[in-house]
Every structure is written in C-alpha cells, then in structure tokens.
Design brief:
A hairpin with a 2-residue loop joins strand 4 and strand 5. This protein is mainly beta. The chain is 6% helix and 43% strand. The protein is built from eight helices and 38 strands. The protein has a 26-stranded mixed beta sheet that branches.
Length: 871
C-alpha cells in the first residue's frame, strides 16, 4: 500500500518585542516548515536459485532444451585455438565441487515464491521493494526596510531526506547482508538580497548566495566481516570500508554492497544587476559570478565485486552461445568468477568558476509593439583538482615502457591480419600538473544573442497578439571530467591467463598476487597499462542550442482565448562518449546471420606479445584473443573518450491551446502539442565515423492535456442558496471540482543487435503477455549475431512502450470559520481509473521473457487528502 503523509505550517509578521523593539513598519519575519513521510511500494520480479540448484542440481533446466546444458570447466582441453569441455552428467555439479563461500552466500537467498517462467526465471516476487522516505524542510527569512529607497532581506534554508531503497530478495529492508544502501540527502543555504533605488528610473540589485548539497550513502552492511563468508582475511584487512562483497550474474539476482560515497558540494554566487528606465527603453545589465566546489570520496567496491558469467561453463566449445539460464549460477557454485574488481579509491577536491555578463533592452517601439534585445557573454572555467589528482587526456602517440619489448615479441609470432610494422602499441594517459592544472580546456568567451517581440496589430481589432523570438543558449558543463585512474587503484580479478582453460583466481583466493598499490601520476603514460582506461575530452566546448518560436494568440469573444504556435530547437556540440578501442570495421562480419567463421577467427587464442609485461592484468598471460591485437590500443582492454562534442539534436513542435470560461464558475482548457525530437548521440558500431540518427528517448510525437474546474453554484453569493445561514453554508458552499486528463504515446523502444526476419510486429504495448509478434525475430541462442557490423537501428518512431492515458481529479471544500480564519479540505485522486502504464517489454530475443512486459511504470490509484488552515 502506498502511504503519503505531508504536514507543515508557516508563520510571518512584523518583528515586535514589547518594550524592547518595535519593527512593525520596518522589520518582518517568515518561517515555514514542511515534513513528509511516504512509502511507495514497487514490486520487483527477480530470479533466484531453487533448492535443487543451491545443491548443484540443474537437471530440471534440461526440460527446457539442450541449450541449458552446463559444462565442466575441469574437463577443458586445448583444441587448436579453442577450448573444448564435457558436460556435467545429468546437469548436476558434484557436492564436493561446490565452493564453501558460495554455500554461505546461498544461505541468504530466499526460496522462490512463484512458478515464474518454464525455465525458472522470474520465480521471486519481492513485496519489500519500493521506497520509504522521511523528509523535512524549513525556511526562514527576514525583511528589513532600511529606508523608502533601500530594502534588504536575508534567508536561511535547510532540508533533509532519509530514504531506504528496495530489497529485491524479499528480505527485511535492514537485513544485515542483503539490504544494501540507503539514501541521505542534506541541503543548506543562505542568501542575502539588497535592492537600492537611486531614483524612479534607476535601481541596483545585489545578491549573494551559498548552497551546500550533501548526499552520503548509508551502508546497512557497514562493518561486515567478509571472512564470515569464507573469504581470505586479506580482503577485509585491506578494505577501506568493510561491507558485504558484491556478487553479480548474467541472469540471476545478485546482492552485496559498495562502500558508499561522501559528497559535500558547495555552490557560491554573486549577482549584480542595474535597471535603468530611459524613455522607451528599459535597460538591464549586470554580472553573474559563480564558483562550485566538490569534495568527494567514492569508496567503490571497497570489499570486492565479483561477476559470474558463462565463460567457464558454456560449451562444448568456449565460444558457444551462452545458456539462457543456469551457467552463471553454476560458475558461482564452482567458485569461478569471470570478472571483478577491488577498489582502493582516493578523495578528490574539485573546483570550477563561471563568469557571465548580460545586457537586455525592453524597447517599447509603440503602444502595440515591444522589442526584447539581449546579449550574454560568459566564460566557464575548466574543472581543476586541488592536488592535481586527475587524468587530463590521452597521448595517442606516446612510446611506452613496454612498446619495444611487445613489438619484439610480436615479430616472433605475428598474426596474418596485422603486419609486424603495423603492430605499434602506443598511447597512454596524461595527467594534470602544477604547470597544467586544468582537466580540459574551454573557450575564452561565449556570446549568446537573444531577440524577441510582442505585437498587437491594430488592423486585427486589438484582440490578437503575435509573439516571437530567437536566441542562443550555452549549456553549463559544471564540475565534470575528474578521473583519478592511478590515484584510485582498482585491482581487477584476473580469472584466467590461458583463455579460460585453467583458473588464475577463485572465490577462495580472488587476488592471488595481492592488490596493486596506487601509483598516482608517477608512471605517466604507463599508468593503468593492461586495464580499461577513460579520459575526458581535453578540448571540451560548451554545447549550445539555438531556439526560436512564433505564436499567435486570439481573443474569441468575451470568454474564449485561442493560441497556436511553433517552437524549434537545434542543439549542437552535445557530449558523446566513444569507445576508441573497438575492432576495426573491416574485420567485422557483414553477414545478416551469425558468421561462425568470423567469430572463431576473432576469438581464437594466439600468442600474446604482452606476456609477462602487464602483471596483475588479464593481458599478462601467454595467450590472448586475436581480436585484442587488432585493436588500435591493444595494450588496453578498452579506451573510452568522454564528452566528445560530436552530438546534436533537432526539436520541432506545433502547439495549440484553447481556454474557455463559462458563466457559473466553469472553466475548460485544452492543450495539444505535435512534435518530433531527433538526435545524434551514439554509434551503432564503436568505430563508425558517423553517429546514428534516431528518434530520441524523450520523443513523444503528440501530447493532449485537458483540464477543467467547476465551482458548484451552491452557497452564499451563488445561484442556489445565496442567502443560506452560516451553518448551512458550511455544508453546501465553496465546493470545487477539478479534473486533468492526459493522453500521450510512450517512449520509443530501444533494440539490440537482433536478427529481424521482416514483417509487421503488430505491437500492442498495453498487452503485458505478448506486446508484439515474437516470431519475427530469430530467438535461437546459438544463432545470435556477434562480432558483426551492425546495421539494425536502435529505435523506430512507430515502436513504442505503453503511453499515458490518465485521469486525475480533486474535490476541494472551503470552510469560512470567521472573518480571518479559513479552512480548506482537499481530496485528490491520482490515476483515478487505476489504469496501469506498462514498462517496455523484454527486448532480448534469447530471454524467455522476450516480448513480455513484467513491470508497471506508474503508480496505482493514489488518494491524497489535505487540510490547510489560514488565519
């Protein structure tokens, strides 16, 4: 059940202290308080192991097909460039092979409470999921009339939200192992504003503001001793914050905790403006100066994070398609992670500044024409870290300490696809320094012109107003780009050094070589070799949008107003992340079906030229996948550039509004918008030269909102019962009904790298059982695409999830208790028809739930009541 309780009050008046101070004409105060307690259930469906699976028995899965077979990693043998494995007999893992750590984790899993799908997915419905929040807010203000020309006010504000999140395993929200984290948000602020009127045509406004935002995560498992689960003692001994080590799966629901984050964020602002009335001109100019400071310590996975995929248990060959369910849990039972990390993070203290200068002129050309002219010049400084603990770019031509040795080793065992001369492992991270403290560079000055007009043509009878305008608006980057690779040291789980033939790490000893010590920037371009790296665009430009609009408003008769308008927006330089280390497109398959030959070639294990050169990483073994050597920066698993200014978007909208006021207290309004939002914000393939042009996730092609308000004609001063007595008026008078009806399509669906046979999908996003025709797709796991040049778009304008179709209404009753006392009662019904809005269906063809909708996007009917007393 959803529960929402809101309460509060406010008091204001002059500052008057008898016999001490009388400020009834000069000094005034205001204080307000608001509190909220809410509980919002959000049932979640999860997948948990059955009692048989906890004991290693996955035989029941074979009833769903041979694709669910689990293979024994201990039987792996080298077969050319591949690894071949034998299946577990009867799909059962012997009891003596099950990891004691896995057994301890499994003891915290609840039993399934529903049948789920035929293969056992979605077998747990959590009734403890959802949000629970406690919130309070207060604000205080003091106004001082220093003189007729001089007025000053100062205010203070504070609010706090303490929340508890979901427990998807249907356990107690404060369960000491599975509960995870809670949210705590705190805000403080102080502002002072001074207005001085020099003359009736000249005024100065000065303002100063400070705001602090803090969001420390609460860890319910903080202090947990991981040795109680069977982990080696060095895990807890080296932890910066002890929590339950996190476990994750391909299909099953995992649990565990991060160390959380401490996050004080300060924002300072000085604002100055001068207003001057000069004949027909109203001039305003001034400055806006801001500084933001962020101090953060993100502990990350401070006691370990372990991913269990299918690499160890799929077969018969190591590059076979993964099973829809079971193989990941089997890897866990065997104590064989496929990935993971242990974080040792440092803190950061970031700062950025902003300077803006503006000028506007409201020019009244004539009695029926006004022009609005403006210009803003602004500069946003780059983010800096107080101690230069940040990456600030990537030098793609840098010689590395391993370059010569790796090239020599490659020359002894080259692959046909890459000549010896073409194998050049160059490139590494660069860092901020005392000589170059900025994480990225920014423009010296950005100019934003704006123009607008309002015109009431005399020839149209004075009942029509035409408005229009255009302007350039720059986006603020904020504190961004901080990346502390090297200072924050992540030690990866290295599951194997020979292509998943034999394990190099297990749950019992996940980090056999210990933890890597933070090197800071001392290694320069050699930092994080063999690990995934990320850097922020060192030549960042502020994104900006050009906006324009034109509207016509017409008064139709005495009580009807109609307005129609057009609005456009083009945004450019939008930030786009790009994976720079993708496989070159000329090596990818162009087949519309699974190209096993290409997959075999690209995943084949070959001699590793980095063997012994990259200790503590998965690239240090004697073998490496062929596709890794074909990547531009083969010394890194991945290289990601953040916020490249490649993106853009286009928005066009036709808007119409009609408002009608009837006699007798009835008012109706209708709003309609027809629009399209197109974006270029991502690539279909990592190294595509062009971004994909597609419908944006926020696109809604149309939206209709109608609302009405009706004051019932009963009670004093009304059509019926205008002369009733006070007590009768308390019952029949001051009734108001309001209603809002909203209708709009849903968000476009986002598709993966699927095989589509063609033909209509007959989509029905409001049918949770079958949202579209699933037979139009290839659903066989062993036939799915991989290592291919993708051409299937991610979104289509006509394929969308369920839209909004909702009626909200409220009933308001006023009670006039006395001359100065009024009581108002409100009863509001949200989603009054209790119509569900369904989430997007499952879009992974190999998932048993493909085409099925498993979640609801909106809240069920909610009824909210409120009392407000004004005296």
């Amino acid at each position: 059940m959803s529960r929402y309780n809101q309460y509060g009050g406010s008091v204001s008046g002059p500052v008057w202290i008898p016999k001490l101070y009388d400020g009834r004409n000069r000094v005034f105060f205001f204080f307000g308080y608001e509190g909220i307690k809410d509980s919002l259930p959000a049932p979640v469906v999860s997948t948990v192991p059955t009692a048989a699976q906890k004991g290693g028995d996955f035989s029941a899965l074979l009833a769903s097909g041979n694709a669910y077979q689990i293979y024994d990693p201990a039987t792996g043998v080298r077969e050319g460039a591949r690894v071949r494995r034998l299946p577990f007999a009867g799909n059962v893992i012997p009891a003596n092979r099950i990891s004691p750590i896995a057994r301890n984790y499994l003891s915290y899993y609840p039993a399934p409470n529903q049948a789920g799908l035929p293969d056992g997915q979605d077998n747990l419905l959590s009734t403890t999921s959802g949000e629970r929040n406690d919130f309070f807010n207060y604000i205080g203000r003091m106004d001082v009339n220093i003189s007729d020309r001089h007025k000053l006010f100062a205010g203070v504000r504070h609010n706090q939200r303490v929340g508890q999140g979901s427990n998807n395993l249907n356990q107690s929200l404060t369960d000491p192992v599975t509960s995870g984290t809670g949210l705590s948000r705190r805000n403080w602020g102080i502002m002072a504003d001074d207005v001085y009127t020099f003359s009736p045509t000249l005024m100065l406004n000065s303002r100063a503001n400070w705001t602090r935002f803090s969001e420390p995560l609460r860890n319910f498992t903080e202090g947990f001793d991981s040795t109680s689960l069977g982990f080696p003692a060095y895990l807890a001994a080296n932890s910066s914050k002890r929590v339950v080590p996190r476990i994750r799966f391909s299909r099953y629901t995992g649990f565990g905790d991060t160390g959380g984050t401490t996050f004080p964020f300060d924002s300072f602002q000085l604002f100055e403006s001068v207003t001057k009335i000069l004949s027909k001109h109203s001039l305003k100019f001034g400055a806006d100066i801001r500084q933001q400071r962020e101090s953060q310590l993100n502990f990350g996975f401070s006691n370990g994070d372990f991913l269990f995929g299918t690499n160890w248990t799929q077969g018969p060959l190591d590059n076979a398609a993964a099973a829809p369910l079971g193989q990941d849990m089997a890897s866990f039972l065997l104590g064989l992670p496929t990935d993971g990390v242990y974080d040792n993070n440092t803190s950061r203290q970031n700062k950025r500044s902003y300077y803006g200068f503006f000028f506007t002129d409201d020019y009244r050309v004539s009695s029926n024409l006004t022009l609005n002219l403006g210009l803003r010049a602004e500069h946003e400084g780059a983010t800096t870290e107080r101690y230069n603990r940040s990456v600030n770019g990537f030098d793609d031509a840098a010689n590395l300490s391993i370059t010569a040795a790796a090239r020599a080793a490659y020359a002894l065992n080259p692959i046909p696809e890459l000549s010896v001369s073409a194998f050049r492992p160059l490139g590494g991270l660069t860092f901020a320094s005392n000589e170059n403290r900025e994480i990225y560079s920014t423009a010296s000055l950005n100019f934003s012109p704006r123009v607008g007009f309002a015109w009431k043509p005399d020839k149209l009878g004075g009942n029509t107003v035409i408005r229009g305008g255009a302007g350039v608006y720059y986006f603020v980057l904020g504190i961004n780009g901080a990346n502390q690779l090297g200072f924050s040291q992540a030690t990866p789980v290295v599951p194997t050094l020979d292509g998943f033939l034999t394990p190099a790490a297990t749950l019992a000893n996940p980090f056999p070589n210990g933890f890597a010590a933070p090197s800071g920037s001392s290694l320069g371009v050699n930092t994080f070799l063999g690990r995934a790296v990320t850097f922020y665009n060192p030549d960042t430009k502020n994104p900006y949008s050009v906006r324009w609009n034109l509207s016509i408003s017409r008064q139709l008769g005495a009580s009807t107003m109609f307005e129609i308008g057009y609005m456009g927006n083009k945004a450019v330089r939008l930030g786009v992340d790009q994976a720079l280390n993708g496989i070159p497109v000329n090596f990818l398959s162009t087949s519309p079906t699974r190209d096993q030959a290409t997959i075999n070639t690209l995943t084949a294990n070959v001699a590793n030229p980095y063997a012994g050169l990259l200790p503590g990483t998965a690239l240090n073994g004697g073998l490496v996948a062929r596709n890794q050597l074909l990547r531009r920066y083969s010394q890194f698993p991945s290289v990601t550039a953040q916020a490249l200014n490649d993106g853009s978007s286009h928005f066009h909208a036709l808007q119409a509004r009609i408002e009608r006021r009837f006699s007798g207290g009835l008012q109706l309004t209708g709003n309609f918008q027809y629009s399209k939002l197109i974006e270029k914000r991502s690539r279909l393939n990592d190294l595509d030269p062009l971004l994909e042009k597609r419908i944006a996730a926020e696109d809604r092609p149309w939206r209709l909102v109608t609302n009405g308000s009706y004051d019932l004609p009963f009670g004093r001063g009304k059509r019926f019962g205008g002369n009733v007595n006070r007590w009768a008026n308390l019952a029949v008078g001051e009734w108001t009904f309001n209603a809002i009806y909203t209708l709009q399509p849903g968000a476009p669906l986002t598709w993966g790298n699927v095989i589509y046979f063609g033909g209509p999908l007959n989509i029905d996003p409001h049918n949770p059982d079958i949202a579209f025709d699933r037979t139009r797709f290839n659903r066989v796991a062993a036939q799915q695409l991989d290592f291919n040049l993708r051409t299937f778009p991610t979104r289509f304008a006509n394929l969308r999830q369920d839209g909004v179709n909702q009626l909200d209404f409220s009933v308001i009753k006023g009670f006039k208790i006395g001359e100065t006392v009024n009581l108002t009662y409100r009863c509001e019904f949200f989603n009054s028809t209790n119509r569900p809005i369904f989430s997007a269906p499952q879009l992974a063809p190999t998932n048993t739930n493909f085409g099925v909708i498993t979640n609801q996007a909106n809240q069920p009917r909610r009824i909210q009541m409120a009392l407000r007393l004004v005296f």
